[in-house]
Batch of 4 targets.
Target 1
Amino acid sequence: MTAPKIDLHKTITDQIIDAIEAGCPPWRKPWTGSAACPGLPVRHNGEPYRGINVLVLWSVAAAKAYNSPRWMTFKQAKDLGGSVRKGEKSALVMYFDTFKKEDETGEEKVIPFTKGYRVFNADQIDGLPAEFYMQPEAPIDLGTEHDAALEAFFAATGALIETTQEPRAFYDIARDRIHMPPISTFHDAGGYYGTLAHELTHWTGAASRLDRFGRFAERKAYAFEELVAEIGNCLLCAELGLTPDFEQSGAYIHGWLRAMKEDNRAIFRAASEAQKAIDLILTLGHPSQVAAE
């Protein structure tokens, strides 16, 4: 019996979406401390991954709280003297290459192809050399302080914002509240409030507010929601007199467009939803409070 063909793009996208559902978009982290490895994912031999595979393995590492940047196949782990623990699940990555083929005229053409293969993180494997394992990055108190006017603005929106030492920023849909690491662990206040703006844009999507989650309910909508939140972050930062990190936001948005296999029209749809979110936030937050300070 022939095994069913795997939809590589769907499987890759689903892995990334799993990280969103876990509250772990790991490629944006302007604070110190990490539950997972902050570095670029690399192969067993130290060669770095590229393209969509970076996004995939970052996402899986964040969702599973892996600390090691090293990934390898079952055979590679065995060759290194390691053994994958029973019950551990692999991550699917993509291999891109080409082959040559003659067409009907006898002309040789280069044909691109893609295939998937499975890898495990070093944290899933026992018995590897010590250098394959890493400890999480501890949060560092950098002394970054709150801005009183911005604090008043965000408080006025009515969003419930929790702060703990957990080094993750996310919106908890089930509990309808935002989680933030302490501002003192951020490299600067702009990074803190930009991150909060991103999560507050997510917050507007609840059923009691703009009900985006209800209207974009299929699984692929999680990736679309990340586009909305990142554009919302840029718009709200501009409204509040903060400087958005356009370079990072551009890379973030480009990554999600690739993950979704969407064309640029997704940007326009996401921008429309983001504007609705920012209009609501500004109505609730009374931006005049910020200008008056």
Target 2
Amino acid sequence: MVCSGGLLLVILGKLEWNIQHLGIYIAALALFHFLEYIATALFNPDKLSLDSFLIDHSPHYHAAHAASIIEFIIEYLFFPSYKRFGLLSWLGLFLLVLGQGCRTVAMFSARHNFSHHIVDYKSQDHVLVKHGIYSIMRHPSYFGFYWWAVGAQFLLMNPICLGLFVYWLHKFFSERIAYEEHTLNRFFGPEWVIYKTKTPTWMPLIP
């Protein structure tokens, strides 16, 4: 329903208010959460719950999306010509598609090995995924969300949120990746070290 509302806003926004990019953002956000649930349902059905939508991720997550919409609306009201869909919005749309595509492919490649939570113990069927998109980058799901979130701010042409998002995304993922890679090294030892050496993250300032 939210995705449909976003698509309706795309149509009306293009015809009446030139805010179709806000509709794209809302539809993309709904699609993101839907695909998180679908991947869990397909490959980790025993872990499936309403939390699998990742809607109630954290207060910070909700605040970030609320800030994105608020900044867009305020700047649209005071500087409507600045918010016209243009090259920056097209760049943002490209990054949204790239990010969503990489994250979805990562979940479908890792299958049951994918988890929304960092595990502290190694199950018997837990393997180090190195094929497909994982042969190109170490953390494609993080890469995907990073560029999805940055792309959303380009799409909306939100300069303030763009700067804040880049800062907090780097802080969050650098800390999360460091902890996750510590556990992966504990689980897989030399196999992980060799894989890490050959495979970058392709995320800014996170080698």
Target 3
Amino acid sequence: MAGPPTFATPPGFLGIRRQDPGAAFCVAGVPLDIGTTNRAGARDGPAAIRRASRMLVDGVHPSHWVDPLGLDIADLGEFELVLGDIPGSLALIEQQAAQCGHLVTLGGEHLITLPLLRALAKRLGGPVGLLHMDAHVDTWQTNFGQAYRHGSVFFHAIEEGILDPRRMIQIGIRSPVDRETWDWTLGQGITVVTAQEAHESTPAALAERVRGVLGQAPCFLSFDVDCLDPAFAPGTGTPEIGGLASWQAQGILRRLGGLAWAGMDVVEVAPAYDVAEITALAAATIAWEYLSLQALA
């Protein structure tokens, strides 16, 4: 072990202590958690992901031999929220995200992606493409009877014109969905790869499919940990059986270098349901893999 032992690593993501919104890459936590009808608990997700990231700072992975800590990177801590006020919290998240350049966001629930995309689209001057890895389509017009919940985030993003559905691909979809929402999703031009299709394919083939959809224009990665099977990520609010294995997700992401990545989030870690930190570690590793792609660029 070349450096200090991992238990001595400070609580910032990958041990980063620097807090500078002017850094080329900024990590931020957004502990938004308005709950679901069955489980809640994503509020503590950012802290859990940071703690688990201590497992990733002792070296580099031999599949790519790059260290994301070589980037100009800062950890800004937690974004502020307006407790109990969903529109107010979304506006505040967007305001804070707009002050950053390339943002890596630790959730919190999936609704945080909407203000992140709002800020990004304004900064870039137009809609962005999206790789969405999830068990759920998240294109319901309403979710649990409310307009703004984690299951409606991409419906609003498409309706607001901040997300180009023709440059959007979803991987890992497998939850029950009503036919109207399914037809609307496909009708927008979104490419949907179900979990079953992913299992019958390979990470290399799926990565090529992603490249074909995203092209070379700016794109965003939104990774919901329930994309992974509950065997690999039990600590989440809406688990669905039959999901991707951790190695499949890594295999896809490691083949996506060279795209015009403009930001990412990893969401829906609910530590209260986790076992031995495996969900938090999976989320931390996904963010680490994404930063490794940027280091390769």
Target 4
Amino acid sequence: MPITLPASATGKRLLTAAFVAVLAVGVAGCGTDRMSTGSIGRTSGKPVELMSSGELRDATARLGQSYASNPTDKNIALKYATVLQMNGDADQSLAVMRKLAISYPKDRDVLAAYGKALAANGQFEPALDAVRRAQTPEYPDWRLVSAEGAILDQLGQRDEARQLYRKAQDLKPNEPSILSNLGMSYLLEGDLRTAETYLRSASSQPNADSRVRQNLALAVGLQGRFDEAEKIASQELSPEQAQANVAYLRQMLSQQNAWNQLKAQDKSKSQAAKAVN
């Protein structure tokens, strides 16, 4: 049975990189993805996904001012859309990217990031179209291949998604983001052990980034191994953030178990009623 992850604000901050698709690790990729894996400005060297709520607000305000002064600047708009999305403003992020896509209708980076923004808003079919338009068949970009797979995963097309991940692996062997997307594919399906296997492989690669390890922490935590999950998470997060994530996982699993128990009780009552009749 697939695991249903709640879309509360707390859940969104739990491990943001894991939830902005399973697709985040490749979608914005072709050359400007530094905005999601590196510093977003000269004043901070911290990756966006590790920023606190206050830091994200500051970054959003700073980039918002720059964007207002020059909304057609590609790099500023891409970074602004990213921090908006990380800060929970998915609608505004999409609006920024939609406007940028009008200005740069054939730019691969812009189309890819536009696809990410669409997917983050649950508009998976248009997202798929944007990512496919960004691709060049004669010179396929592994990031876009992996991103297309991630969107198909969100549409429940697991087999097709995994075929694309393997195609991406052929183009870029041992790439941690592809292995991570493959692991998250199995996590979405509820196969936590297989998910953990791929995510461990991803996190062991020399160029694995924070998001990959946070995805591994998620897979481990969802299996109830909270101490291990906290240890993995604390490699990048502050002790307070790691503890908060694990506490949320405990609460989420407790609620899920309670829901499953209620469903089991309803099923038993229905079977008993049929037996009586």
